[in-house]
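User: I'm curious what two different proteins look like when written out as structure tokens. Can you demonstrate?

Assistant: Sure. I'll show them one after the other, since each token string lines up with its own sequence. Here's the first protein:
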Amino acid sequence: MVIAPSTFAERLVKTVGITQPTAVLSNGIPAGQLTAFRERRGLPQQVRVLCVGRQAREKRYDIIIDALARVREPQRYSITFAGSGPAREQLEAQCLDLGVTARFVTPSDAELAALYADADLFLHAGESELEGMSVMQAMAAGVPTVVSDSQASAAGGLTTLESCRFEFPDPSDLARKIDQLADEPALVRRASVENAQA
């Protein structure tokens, strides 16, 4: 049997001609994170944005930085990139060039849990993703989460809310989705609750 971490990954396995039986078994969400849910009811005046994952080209953090520079009130947003990787210096330079307030951290597990608990908005622009663990963890914590609709990523299928998916690789569309959340507290609450339930 071939075990895949998501239905997206299972479809990929089948497209390459695997004939053995397949099953989906997610890596799962830490139990502590499931109990750490906090409902968000709107974006605050100062929005703490979180991105989690390897800082590499396929994660497309460049799109997120571009989007945050294009939102209606860019000064409202500060972003934390949690992780490490070969693109860090390039991303730091892009933030500096575009005036995006950012910090880059390599957290412990406990520090990462605290980042999810404190975040007001989670953004994921990945081009390719087999499971989307960071997205699922953010959703479980109740963080309103906007993901790319890239056809090569499992993340787009994790939310049923159209307002929480942006057209990959368009930073202007991501900026529009962020502005929509800023304008509609009820949508933030819905994203917080429904994504956590999913």
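Here's a second, unrelated protein for contrast:
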Amino acid sequence: MSQAPSKDVIAELTSTGVLRAGINMSNFLLVTGKRPNGDPDGVSPDVAEEIARRLGVPLELVAFKSPGELGDQAGNNVWDIGNIGAEPQRAQTIAFTAAYCEIEATYLVPAGSSIKTIADVDKPGIRIAVAGRSAYGLWLENNIKHAKLVTTDGLDGSFNAFVAQKLEALAGLRPRLIDDVKKLPGARILDGQFSAVQQAVGTPRKNQAAAAWLGGVVEELKASGFIAKAIEKHKAFGLSVAPKA
């Protein structure tokens, strides 16, 4: 078992007497439904609930429409832990654990496209629809050298822009693209991935003791099978348990 939380950890994470966990509602793999009391349900809330149990305090789930909105509140005393994708831009204000699970990010291309591989996408003249401030969108901002990113508000926005503007590629998480491709006769999802979104537990950077303790808890949740069981329980197929840190 991981070490019991120290007084410093408890002080950093439970200053209001509860653990306030920021939950990204836009990730349909990590939040798969609602609990009887109306709270979000899924792998991400289960992880938050287990952390609260180990701290010995009640859990308060704080819902955010997008990961960007959740990340913006780091340091504003709105949440104590935040469950979102770990990206370099966010790590400036948030101390992340290693990932507890991963989701493949790839591209969908329209019928008749000459694009065959992931490598074919980052070329001059290629336009990629992407949900703004998503974890994979931040990765593309950091790594795309030649193609143009067409950034939209949310997942539906990126799909709509891809169709309406006849763009060359739609970036997304593979499970969502599997749904999208059914709406577009002849469209294809490319094999492989351009990145894997690393879903982690974050806490504001000032919480140094808490960050170290949370890192240990996450490793234990992976090793014990807790994460694998949560994925199976919520039928969150498309998630995989992240490798050991």
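A detail about the second structure: The helical segments are 7-13, 43-55, 67-72, 135-143, 154-164, 174-181, 208-223, 226-233.
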